[in-house]
Amino acid sequence: MTTSSSAIALTGFITWTLLLLVLMEAIRSQLVLRGKVRADRFTPDNAGLSPFMQRLARAHANGIEGLPVFGGLLLVAIATGRSAITDPLAFLLLGARIFQSLVHLVSVGPVAVTIRFSAFAVQMAIGVYWAIALLASLR
After folding, report:
1. Domain holding 77: CATH number?
2. Residue 27: closest CA among 51, 1, 2, 63
3. Which residue ranges run through the membrane (predicted)?
4. How far is Cα of residue 97 from the mean position of the Cα atoms in its chain?
5. How far, in Å, CA of 122 to CA of 20, rounded?
6. Could you report the per-residue pLDDT of 9-43, keeping only the tens digit for each?
7. ∠ at Cα 106 (104, 109), nearest 5°?
8. Number of domains in the chain
């Protein structure tokens, strides 16, 4: 049995979100071990830490926010045998998610916001297309 592009993309989306969390917690752990921040002083948005850490928290949150929606659509397609609907765009969705996160991590300012939103708009367009196509195919 071959694995669908949808299953690979779903696993990639989950893995990417996990990697952002691992990076954030590795940096937080290093800050605690070096005595820079007390372990009980972290906030979910990394307020009070470097701008990079605040962007990292937001990039991770974006992944968490998108996973139920986009991952859910991929899972529905896989579970119902309709991954032919999601397979053609699955890697584009994953690429747009990773690109959005990377821009979030390395850039600030209006141009970066526009680029990030453009990557998110690609994901939204794919998601809307998938939702409509899946609903139509499940009738």
Report:
1. 1.20.120.550
2. 51
3. 6-27, 63-85, 120-138
4. 5
5. 21
6. 999 999 999 999 999 999 999 999 999 999 988 99
7. 70
8. 1
